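Hey, quick one: can you model this chain's 3D structure?
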Amino acid sequence: MLLQLSTWQEIDVYLERSRGIVIPIGSTEQHGPNGLIGTDALCPETVARGMDDKIDIVVAPTLSIGMAQHHLGFSGSITLRPSTLIAVVRDVVQSLVRHGFERCYFLNGHGGNVATVNAAFSEIYADSSFNRQAGNEPGVRCRLGNWYDGHRVRALSRELFGGAEGSHATPSEVSLTFYAYPDAIKNTRMSPRIAPTGPILDAADYRRRFPDGRIGSDPSLATPEAGERLFHAAVEDAVEDYRRFLGAR
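Sure thing. Here's the predicted structure for all 249 residues.
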């Protein structure tokens, strides 16, 4: 069930049978010549809704703006500072805990979020340590799962795209958005076919190193057919990881 399409009474009933929630999180940033600016938020949102079709979960509204300062050299990219994203994640979790949620599973689509979101978890656990009364009972637990890191998705990406996958504006993530949003498919020739690779620093340096936004990838290989296969693989990976998270102490 989608949180934003539910009533508060329905959430109360859900909390009687489960204390877990899935929170898609991504970014709003350029994704090369044919990738949608919303790719990193659209992908985990699509996978989370696929999870909802298979198991009994609540899916929270997508946190669609992340830590993406290095993409600001490209029009349309929006970022939060790391400190701002930490505050957002912290407030979201504390709001959910207030109502009885105890397992917050963040399904992520943007590598630039990883360090900051894990830092937010540390802040949340510090809050719990300082504020809770003495006792050894488990408190809130958080987990960050990257949809693109599951073993099924990684194997399928290697099979489909090999060395052309790269690390940003990848044919895998572009394929998933093409599957989910076929009316938004863009066909653009890539030059060079495989983008350069290198470190990620500030926005000006990024634009100089990667002039069309890609890193090591050839997203012209993206197809909705590949996206459908990746979708099913990602849902299986995410369901497996979420169930493992719910069962952990």
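One thing worth noting: The longest strand covers residues 20-25.
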